[in-house]
């Protein structure tokens, strides 16, 4: 009986709103750090094919010979996948709880309603677009299953081939998705800092600037390579 009660308490604690928000904040931080690192790697395209392909190959050798070739990448991918799944589960669960807890007769001030609508569309529908984009991005530039402009063993050539002017729709989808990532980041960073208790009186302006700054850097950093290819700056 005691063990059953203890198990129930642990289950309730892990599923509490505070635990779910903390899980979202931690997994969100992991994903933000990954995006910054990935953006840095993408920008190496401006250093030429040798530098870009060399960087991509070096990632496969991280941890070697302690790990087999590509071993670190697979570990990292599993951590990212777990972070994404936990992040989505926590977000959906919290959204469902908030919706059930909201009385049908509740009246909102206009400003609060606008803020809620912004957060809802940015995080919910933006998250859906980001998820679709990630799937397409992997199939396009990682596994080479989708290959507009031609498949290639060279990461540099895959990127350049895929964003040629005749494939403007690929670039357009990429641009829209990256902008969605930016909005998702801005609101997510702000919410994460609030969850971790950093968002205190007098700090809102600074934290908002940090959230906007990081989201802008990531957005612009990810948009530069495909747009540079589309407009002929990289070939």
Helix content: over 70%
- The fraction of residues assigned to DSSP E strands is under 5%
Number of strands: 0
Query: What number of domains?
Result: 1
Describe the structure in brief.
This protein has 235 residues and is mainly α.
What does this structure look like?
The chain is mainly alpha-helical. The chain has one domain. The protein contains 8 helices and no strands. α2 packs across α4. About 5% of the residues have low confidence. This is Succinate dehydrogenase / fumarate reductase cytochrome b subunit. GO terms for molecular function: metal ion binding.
Main attributes?
mainly alpha, 235 residues, single chain, 76% helix
Please render the helix and strand layout as text.
Blueprint: H1 2-14, H2 17-42, H3 49-60, H4 71-101, H5 110-142, H6 155-162, H7 168-195, H8 204-230
């Amino acid at each position: 009986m005691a063990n059953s009660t203890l198990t129930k308490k642990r289950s309730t604690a892990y599923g509490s709103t505070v635990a779910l928000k903390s899980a979202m904040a931690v997994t969100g931080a992991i994903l933000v750090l990954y995006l910054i690192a990935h953006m840095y790697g993408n920008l190496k395209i401006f250093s030429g094919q040798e530098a870009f392909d060399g960087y991509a190959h070096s990632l496969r050798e991280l941890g070697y010979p302690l790990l087999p070739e590509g071993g670190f990448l697979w570990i990292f991918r599993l951590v990212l996948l777990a972070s994404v799944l936990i992040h989505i589960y926590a977000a959906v669960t919290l959204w469902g709880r908030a919706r059930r807890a909201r009385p049908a007769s509740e009246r909102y001030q206009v400003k609060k309603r606008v803020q809620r609508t912004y957060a809802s569309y940015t995080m919910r529908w933006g998250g859906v677009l980001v998820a679709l984009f990630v799937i397409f991005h992997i199939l396009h530039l990682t596994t080479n299953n989708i290959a507009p402009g031609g498949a290639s063993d060279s990461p540099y050539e895959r990127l350049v081939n895929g964003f040629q002017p005749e494939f403007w729709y690929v670039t357009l989808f990429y641009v829209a998705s990256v902008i969605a990532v930016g909005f998702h980041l801005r609101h997510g960073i702000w919410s994460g800092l609030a969850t971790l208790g950093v968002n205190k009186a007098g700090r809102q302006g600074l934290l908002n600037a940090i959230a906007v700054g990081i989201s802008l850097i990531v957005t612009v950093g990810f948009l530069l390579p495909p747009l540079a290819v589309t407009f002929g700056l990289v070939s």
